[in-house]
Amino acid sequence: MIPTAINLYVFAVLPDQEIVQVGRILSTNLGSPGQYEGYFKYDPAYLTHPKRYAIDPVHLPLEAITFKTPNRETGLHDIFSDSLPDAWGIHLLARKGGLERQRYAPPHLLKALQGQGIGRFIFSESEQPPQLIDASIDFEDIETAINEAGLLESSLATETAELRHLLACGTSAGGARPKVLTRKDDIHWLAKFSSKHDPHPSIFVALEEAGLTLAAQAGLNVPEFQRVAVKQRDLLLIKRFDITATAGRNAICSFKTLTGNNDPYTTCYADLAAIIRHHSYQPKHDLEQLFRQMIVNVLLINTDDHLQNFAMLHTEAGWRLSPSYDIVPNLYQPGQILQINQKHTGITKEDIILEGRKFGFSKQRARRILSDTRAQLKNWQTVFNNCRVPASHSRELQDNIAGRLTAIE
Question: Hey, what's the torsion of the CAs at 370, 371, 375, 381, to 10 degrees?
Answer without folding.
Answer: 50
